[in-house]
Amino acid sequence: MNVPAFPRIQSTEEALRLQRELVPHLRLTPLNREVRRVAGLDVSFDDATSLCHAAVVIMEGDPPGVVEQVSATRPITFPYITGLLSFREIPALLACLEQIEREPDLLLCDGQGIAHPRGIGLASHLGLVLGKPSVGCAKTRLLGTFQEPSSGRGGTVPLLHQGREVGAVVRTRDRVKPLFVSPGHLVTIGDAVRLTLAWTTRYRLPEPCRLAHHLATAERLRSKSIQRSQP
Q: Does the N-terminal or the C-terminal CB of the chain have fewer CB atoms within 10 Å?
C-alpha cells in the first residue's frame, strides 16, 4: 500500500498547529459503498526501550477471516501527551501499512475519531493522511457526556460535547463495558456505530482491532525477550 511521508513533529506547539490546520479538511460523509476488507490497527509502547510496536490486521470474508497481518517496530519520536497521541502512533502505523498488499476499505483504530478536544484523534488524523474511511473505537472516554446505554448488545446512546454529538457510546456485548465510538474520516456517526457492531463478534472490541492489539503486544514482548537475552 502506498503511504505518504509523515512530517517529523518537534514540539507540542507544532503538533497543535497542525491539528488546527487539518480539522477543516475532515469530511463526515455517508459511506455509500460496501465494506469488504477492514484493517484493525493498534500500537504497543515500551518506554523502557523507547520503542513502539505497531500492528495492522486485515480481515475480509463472510464469516471474516484474517488475510494479512504485519507489524513494525520504530523508535518513539514524540512524548505521551493527551490529545496528541496520533503524533506518537502514526509513524509506526504507516510503517506497517506500507507493507500490506491488500488495501483496506476501512480503518478501525483503537483510539478516538472526532471525539477529541480539537476534533482530530488518531482515527481522524490517520484517515485524513491516507484518504481512507476510518472509525475510532476507544475503550475509554476522552471527553463528552452520555447516559448509560441499555445492557444488551447494540445498546447505543449519543456522546455529547458542548451540545454537539461527537460520537456514540455502544454496547458491543451483553452486560460489558461500552466502547466510545466516533467517526474518523469519510464516515458518519451512524456508519461508525454500524461498522463497529458488524465487525465485533465474541469480544468487546471489533475483531480486527482485538487481533491487532494482540499482535502489537506480542511484538513488544518478543522484542523485550530478545533484548534480555543479549549479553
A: C
Q: What are the grid coordinates assigned to 211, written together?
A: 487481533
Could you report the per-residue pLDDT of 97-138, keeping only the tens digit for each? 999 999 999 999 999 999 999 999 999 999 999 999 999 999
Q: For the chain, which residues make up each domain, given as ranges?
A: 12-138+186-224
Query: CB neighbours of 119 closer than 8 A, spacing ≥ 6?
Result: 23, 26, 166
| pTM metric for this prediction | 0.95
DSSP assignment of 14-71 equals HHHHHHHHHGGG-------S---EEEEEEEEEETTTTEEEEEEEEEETTTTEEEEEEE
Judge whether 31 and 187 are in contact, CB under 8 Å: yes
Amino acid, single-letter form, for residue 126: L
Between the CA atoms of 19, 197, 160 and 177, what dihedral angle is there, to the nearest 10 degrees? Answer: -110
50-70 pLDDT tens trace: 999 999 999 999 889 999 999
Residues 6+ apart with CB under 8 A from 216: 42, 43, 44, 53, 54, 55, 71
CATH, domain 12-138+186-224, list 3.40.1160.10, 3.30.420.40, 3.40.50.2300, 3.30.2170.10: 3.30.2170.10
Q: Of 194, 184, 60, 86, which is closest to residue 133 (Cα–Cα)?
A: 184
